[in-house]
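Holo prediction — zinc ion.
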Amino acid sequence: MNDSFKPLPGSENPKANKAASTPADQIAAPSSAAPVPVRKPRRFAFFIALQSIIGTSIIVATLFTLFTPRNIISGQMFTSIILALQSTPEVNINPTPIQKSSLPRIGIVAGHFGNDSGSVCKDGLTEASVNMTIATIVRQNLLRAGFQVDLLQEFDPNLNSYQALALISIHNDSCDYINNQATGFKVAAAQSTHYPEKTNRLAACLISRYASITKLPFHANTITKDMSQYHAFDEINPSTPAVIIETGFLNLDRQILTEHPDLVAQGVTAGLLCFTNNESIPTKEAPIQ
Ligand SMILES: [Zn+2]
């Protein structure tokens, strides 16, 4: 921009031009080189006026170029890009970002995913890894059945006001030997729901189908507060029917859980489809609680 202050060729004050030839004056050239009209011969008046007009025009044009809406938008885009880059880790943490689709939606929380390992066996087998294997197969089954499926972390931000046809959280019980009765599965339904009958039906469907497919016994009386007051139940939209299942005990049910996760997942999937398809369930497996 400093170039616009330089006098046009032929209009320079010879004195100023000479002074500008020393290095010290070159630094101050823009102001010292500025022509003083009273010292100019009249024949140069036109060039001085022309110089002023061109100089001013260049400055104004430059300023307009800097502040056009396009540049402002570019600035906003740049800010957006920076924010997007900064938020990238969050996006990576999220396994399946919520996407818009007309397909019916089901959410699966892979227990402890993204938070901790859950129960840990002496040989290093973690509950979180067993939960994830089962959750992944259930997800694949549901995708094949025509649903959109969100595979969620234990404390997934998407659980906040989560809306879906159903939400299930998959966990497993302790790897310690407790007693010979510590085998089988547990199911608890969300109580803070707008539709308790729907939610209880989801639980009943799950109990019915999971028991018949896996042949594992249902533990009705050992459901803990960790299950009945499961944190996600209070986070999701109250219109979303939600259940938590402990698909087995890592100790006595280890074989089916680790060697036949497909069968375990099939039991969970059939329970969910029983609910979404409004299939009939035996009356003896009445809704729990
Ligand atoms: Zn767990």
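READOUT: Residues 2-69 form one domain.
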